[in-house]
Design a protein that fits this description.
Elements: H1 5-17, H2 29-44, H3 64-81, H4 87-97, H5 115-131, H6 142-160, E1 181-183, H7 184-201, H8 204-220, E2 232-234, E3 244-245, H9 250-267, H10 270-287, H11 314-328, H12 333-350, H13 374-385, H14 415-424
Antiparallel strand pairs: 1-2, 2-3
Helix pairs in contact: 2-3, 2-13, 3-4, 3-5, 3-13, 5-6, 5-7, 6-7, 7-8, 7-9, 9-10, 9-11, 11-12, 11-13, 12-13
The structure holds 2-acetamido-2-deoxy-beta-D-glucopyranose (NAG) (4 copies).
Residues 41-42, 45, 354, 356, 358 line the site of one 2-acetamido-2-deoxy-beta-D-glucopyranose (NAG).
Catalytic activity: Random hydrolysis of (1->6)-alpha-D-mannosidic linkages in unbranched (1->6)-mannans
Enzyme class: hydrolase
InterPro entries: 6-hairpin_glycosidase_sf, Glyco_hydro_76, Mannan-1_6-alpha_mannosidase
Length: 425
């Protein structure tokens, strides 16, 4: 489907009347790129290379995770548009936060960093691994960094499994508030990390872990039989995960959706594909229905105008992972791209604030609603740029099956030797 130039012209008039609203023709790649560029600038007003909250100005201290999500958004932007404006800063921020053990456990965040905070930085490593993004100077490759984090999660799972028959706790520090909570964003993150490593490496060990985390999540009811994803469950005072907090947030379902998409792609098993279809259908019912507009919304807080600084960013996760799922699982492609196109158009018309295209929280057709922050800009950026997801290179695999030219044996000369050799010549 292609938007006719007269439709675009009519839309342009409507936008002109709205003042500074962002122009977006959702079927025109150049228009999407231009809109994403404008919104990326809106996100980047928060950049601060000296900030210890992940190189973006964030409320202290626990919005470090949100910066991690922001860098993934900008990495996607770089890959989807070929605009390298942010590339050096992305690499610098990742280098500053990856930590001395290359696992995104930097000493600066020690004491309060939770599993899910770490995960939102690890997604950068997984994304870089899949798109062949530049490695950090002197650091291991991105798959090694992601594996380091995976290994920590696996160890913590063993420790946490004395209750509830399994499940990662939200916090890995027993002193931290929330140590008794076993939640969807955390277990979904471990599930997704395992699934992405399985698809990339082809190693069954990761797929087995993904299946184990999936089975546990289903057994305690974090993921329901009809693909709702609930916020969390607890082992406090012997509760043993017997009851579930049924709040539904868009980033929770998105986290499981994208893990299932990698499993479907890796296994080519119709059962995983059904799980993906189930999540897409449930997400469409729960998160795309304000006044039947079909535009994405955060149903738990948007209708009451009460979304907080981290909640405004959750739609970024849903758009990001819906888009990539459309690439990995062909049977949901049309459904997903229609949801994203409507939402991107809705987001763009909200970007009419401050006379400079600042975006709003609500996208269902009322212009700028007056609430803006880092998470708002990130959600709008990911939703608009997700229309470019098919511009990205194919998801990489570690050892391409058709690449028989390279011998499998490790005969590579260590870097230090070749450097010496070069110097002595
Ligand atoms: C848009 O205007 C607001 C309010 O003046 C300002 O804080 C923000 O930095 C501006 N955004 C851009 C991209 O210049
Ligand atoms: C980015 O560059 C690649 C390789 O040159 C190309 O295939 C892709 O279409 C470009 N993406 C965009 C959005 O222009
Ligand atoms: C806690 O739940 C797990 C998983 O259902 C079960 O195996 C275990 O026996 C339960 N523990 C207690 C003390 O009830
Ligand atoms: C896996 O994803 C690729 C795109 O990266 C797609 O071409 C392929 O059809 C998918 N395979 C399966 C089994 O879904």
């Amino acid at each position: 489907m292609k938007t006719s130039s007269s439709t675009i012209a009519a839309a342009a008039v409507a936008f002109a009347q709205a003042g500074s609203a962002l122009q977006l023709a959702t079927t025109d790649i150049n228009s999407v790129k231009a809109a994403a560029k404008t919104v990326s600038k809106g996100l980047y007003v928060f950049h601060n290379a000296a900030a210890t909250t992940g190189q973006f100005n964030q409320p202290q201290p626990w919005f470090w995770w949100l910066s991690g999500s922001g860098w993934t958004g900008l990495m996607d932007y770089t890959v989807y548009t070929n605009d390298t404006t942010y590339k050096a800063d992305i690499l610098s921020a990742l280098a500053k936060n990856v930590g001395p053990k290359y696992d995104f456990v930097p000493p600066e965040q020690a004491g309060w960093e939770a599993n899910d905070d770490q995960a939102y930085w690890v997604y950068n490593a997984l994304t870089a691994m899949e798109y062949g993004f530049d490695t950090l100077p002197g650091a291991p490759t991105w798959d090694v960094i992601a594996t380091n984090a995976f290994n920590l999660y696996a160890q913590r799972w063993q420790i946490d499994s004395t209750t509830c028959g399994g499940g990662l706790k939200w916090q890995y520090n027993p002193q931290a508030n929330g140590w008794t909570y076993k939640n969807a964003v955390t277990n979904g993150a471990f599930f997704q990390t395992a699934a992405r490593l399985a698809r990339y490496t082809g190693d069954q060990k990761y797929a087995d872990w993904a299946t184990k985390i999936w089975d546990w999540s289903r057994s305690v009811g974090l993921v329901s039989a009809d693909y709702h994803v609930y916020d969390g469950t607890s082992d406090d005072k012997g509760a043993n995960c017997s009851s579930v907090n049924h709040d539904e947030w868009s980033y929770n379902i998105a986290t499981y959706l994208h893990g299932a998409a990698h499993m479907a792609n890796f296994t080519d098993d119709p059962v995983w594909e059904q799980h993906v279809q189930g999540f897409v259908n449930t997400a469409a019912q729960v998160f795309f229905t304000p006044a039947k507009t079909g535009v994405m919304f955060e149903q738990k807080c948007e209708p009451t105008h009460s979304c907080t600084t981290d909640q405004t960013s959750f739609k970024a996760s849903l758009s990001r992972w819906l888009g990539k799922t459309a690439v990995l699982v062909p049977s949901v492609r049309t459904t997903i791209m229609n949801l994203l196109a409507k939402s991107a158009a809705g987001a763009a018309q909200s970007c009419a604030g401050n006379g400079n295209s600042t975006c709003g929280v609500s996208w269902s057709g009322t212009g700028f609603d007056g609430q803006s922050d880092f998470g708002v800009e990130l959600s709008a950026l990911e939703t608009i740029q997700s229309l470019l997801v098919f511009q990205a290179p194919p998801f990489a695999v570690k050892n391409p099956k058709d690449d028989k030219a390279t011998p499998a044996t490790n005969i590579a000369v260590p870097a230090t030797h070749s450097n010496c050799a070069r110097r002595s010549r």
